[in-house]
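Schema walk-through. Below, the input block comes first and the output block second. Nothing else is stored per chain. Lengths vary across the set, and this one has 470 residues.
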Amino acid sequence: MKDGGTTAQSIHDTLKTAARRPYWRDTVGEQPLCPALDADTTCDLAIVGGGFTGLWTALEARRRLPDARIVLVEAGACGNAASGRNGGFCAPSISHGVGNAVKRWPAEADTLVAFGRANLDGFEADLAEFGMSVELERKGKVTVAEKPWQIKGLQAQAELYGRFGIKSELLTGDALRERFNSPVYSAGLYEPNYAVLNPGKMVAELRRVALARDVIIHENTAVTAVRDDAGGVELETPGGVIRAAQVVLATNAAPPLLKRLRSAAIPIFDYAIVTRPLDADELASIGWTGRHCIADCGNQFHYVRKTADNRILWGGYDAVYHYGSRRDEAFLTESESFDRLAGNFARALPSLSHVPVTHAWGGVIDTSARTTFFAGTAHAGRVAYAMGFTGQGVSATRFAALTMLDLLQGLETERTKLAMLRRPPFPFPPEPFRWLGIRMAQRGLAREDETGRRSAFNKMLDAFGVGFDS
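--- output ---
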């Protein structure tokens, strides 16, 4: 998509004063930090990382090990990284969608699809059991298409969904306009089994429940090294050494602590803007009176949703990689992507081009070359890890937590037997080949959005089972 020109001018102007922080923080407020570690300590299980993955692991570990001493350490504040900066899309998938499962693991696609649906059911059940209020809305998603080849893609997706017994409905004309009325999109696919939530509240509630169940949390406690200890593992931090029988590494988009993982995922920056609350007439003008979420089906795609107070979150499109896998803090608040998002918003929803943006921020996605998370063990099975969620971590992190605990307990389960988890992803090459390869892949994807034709380079990556989707 291109910028919307003069129609986007008002929304562009508001970017200058928009808060450069996730909107979700405003819904939670300041959370008193747990004290940093200031002395050596011991535990049965140490968890490194206080985002979705680490906190889900803490809760499930407490279920399995009611008497264990569980210590979770976080380099900053829980949820301050990827978990608190995403759009809150909660997919019924652990494999980055049905199509990705069929393309990469056809022999176990049925299992992966079933796991994804069951995981979202289990996710919702856990929220109820733990009394977590996170603004979960399971009202479905509409994927919209602009170009003729994208419409054919939606038709193929509907057929694929039917093969796996997944309900969906193709939308055109009035049926589409009643769910999302935009001059840009001419077809859509509605799937009722999809959810969104407030990721800020999700982190806060996971943290609250973990503390209530005697999980010890130390924030502002960065782990700088992992090493073997007699019968266990040592974690080095500025405030002291943690000696643990077992360790879970849930650092995701942060630089990996294990050398073997440094080429397994790369940091991709993603951006979002949020408007002021819209009134009923404004929402009716775009046909969006339901609580479903929206995504378009381009390679460079947008994800769009309402917040609880009827703001519109408009995110995605750009997926920015910085040479050398840089993760500068400045990238979170300053980017040309904000202007592109505002322009694309105004182009798709011209009747709302006057609506101001109140928040604009970036986040980091831990992206694997196959677009799904992976898990494994190290240090003679005493350390488990999961990473590479590629933007699908809101729901898949729960499944990853269960898998890592299975691995640490030496259990052979349906989860641990998955080829998706047993086989490591294709490693990203060193620089400068990494940067050059990503640039070539992205240019090819952009051209495919415009022409419907896949580039020779991306076809080659397809043949090796490597992708650069988001």
